[in-house]
Amino acid sequence: MRQQMPKQDPEIRWRNFDEVALGFTVEQAQAEADRCLKCKKPMCVQGCPVEIEIPNFIALLAAGQPEAALAKIKEKNSLPAICGRVCPQENQCEKLCVLGKKGEPIAIGALERYCADWGRKEETEAKSTPQETATKGKVAVVGSGPAGLTAAADLSLMGYKVTLFESLHAPGGVLRYGIPEFRLPKAIVDYEVGNLVKMGVEIKKSCLIGQTLTIDDLFSQDYQAVFIGTGAGLPHFLGIPGENLNSVYSANEFLTRVNLMKAYLFPEYDTPIRIGKRVAVIGAGNVAMDSARTALRLGAEKVIIVYRRSREEMPARLEEIENAEEEGVVFHLLTNPLQLLGDESGNVKTMVCQQMSLGEPDASGRRRPVPILDSEVSFPVDTVVVAIGQGPNPILLKGTAGLNLNKWGYIEVDPETLMTSIPGVFAGGDIVTGAATVIAAMGAGKKAARAIGNYLASKK
Amino acid sequence: MEIIDKKELAPGIVQFLVDAPLIAKKAEPGHFIILRHKENGERIPLTIADFDREQGTITLVCQGIGKSTKEINQMKKGDAFLDLLGPLGTPYPINKLGTVICVAGGLGVAPLYPKAKALHQAGNRVLSLIGAQRKEMLIMTEEMAAVSDEVRYSTDDGSFGHHGFVTALLQQALSEEKVSEIVAVGPVPMMAATVKVAKEFNVPIVVSLNALMIDGTGMCGGCRVTVGGKTKFCCVDGPAFDGALVNFEELLLRQRYYHEQEKEACHRCRLEEAGK
Predict the structure, then answer these.
(1) Does the predicted TM-score (pTM) go above 0.80?
(2) Which fold has domain B92-208?
(3) Which chain A residues in 286-325 lie under 8 Å from chain B, judged by CB atoms?
(4) CATH number of the B3-88 domain
(5) Residue A324 is inside which H or E element, if any?
(6) ipTM score
């Protein structure tokens, strides 16, 4: 039987910011690791964008050697405590696990998290000797989100002196400003980023490449290659009337106020947030779930998710949808916002929606939502959070001559090497693919690090 | 990020000279920075009021309104800001146009000054119109005089210059001579009124908006403004916009959004002071 990770009781957790999923106990980790069949040709590894030797680390864990298991994971992945928490394993390694064909797959993510948390508790990292053998020259990594952190770690292990440039005042990108404390505690981000610093990675915060320094400046400062991992940070809006009313937030703003600026601790922290009694979150991805669950924790009485397609098309992880439902978030599916109406102070009061039905599949392969005539419904709302996705942030792209973009405004790269149209400049993660997952960005960071290594070696 | 010099320009308005060589090197008129003064402080956007590439310094002017800005103004020479990010925003375009009127209301002089300076250097005739509530609230008058061909003043209470709003000065100036462009910076109602006058005389007007923002890099969308019916982000598309196209009513409502919270934070802050 697959072990179930203990969680905070929904009745209690819906009003606090403490982590919801509590992690396996030592007995659970043992029992789960013992279930692994140690396949000769492990399918799970093929599902891992960062190529972790999954059966090997699980075997070490089963043999009672968590330290060795963690070391095995860290050969490929420098951020195991983060990945163990936020990767959609059900669509990757666990989806391919042979045990899943007849029963339930191994809880690989939970075991990865167990090893990482064990290491953090035992402070094994503190004992390891810091690397000071960066002899191969300087590489600049732009953006300290999942792609940048991974590229930085891998390049550092390869012997390059890496500088990570971050525009915000704290590193981590979406791990810092986007994913809430109750799903990914910031102490975990601090710890894993701290390990990179111990490895010799230098982090320059509050430095916006494209404005403070240009890519050209980096080359003239003797960086031999640049990796761009700036993510998809520009929030999309619906373009419906009333969207600029007060109390209408992009999910980015809503989550940044709470996660980065700690508005949930106002007035101890100076940045405020206003939360109404009735909150509507538009969209049904992980960011929408994070926003809805954050709204509850800020004190909202009723939180609804409004989504124009049906449950089947919801892009969020099943686990996150279930968590949201357990906490009391109500889903209004096949419902499409048409406009927002406000009061005399410019605050949103009403959301007018239209009911939808599903028609033929569209370009994305999902059935296209079609409006049902005369089906308008209105919801009273005090706060609206728009969580319908992000586009590429234009700052670096505008400020860098010769950088080719595709028709959606993302950076064009060689699919093999991730090199851009500028020699020595590589890119990966959401700024190339559009908004995707943490682990996909990490996979790109890894691939780019390898390509940068090859590129610099070939130049010598 | 160290404060090299500090001077009080008017009650509650402080000017800082800050060591920031990287920012000074790239700064252009219209750029701004975002700073945090301490770990739990807000990210505060401030216009770069002046910059010196050789000295590697920038000048910032801060009015103590909320809790963070009041605390910033308590900082001393030798103190350092915790973080300083910039330069941000799109620079204001400087061209030789002829006569340009620079209109400032209150603290608006600080963001206006580098534009006036650059316009003057570019060979324009710069007529500056500066309004404030009362005489002691007029700031940077010497600096503005040095980069203007002429300066006229107004105060709401009549304590200096014209008794009344700065828009009256604008009306008068526009009826006197042919003007190529107006640049206006100040409180939202003042900019809205200035745009109204500019429209009457059919003169192009550029305004510099100070919407609420967090990251200042286009990520949060909190600073969105409607310009010509389209949503723009003040932090990356601005802060300068064609004044004739800005929806000021919406901007005013958005700026007032956190007033209650600001009052609460300041109230607490005073209680803490009293408790000391």
Answers:
(1) yes
(2) Rossmann fold (3.40.50)
(3) none
(4) 2.40.30.10
(5) helix A318-326
(6) 0.90
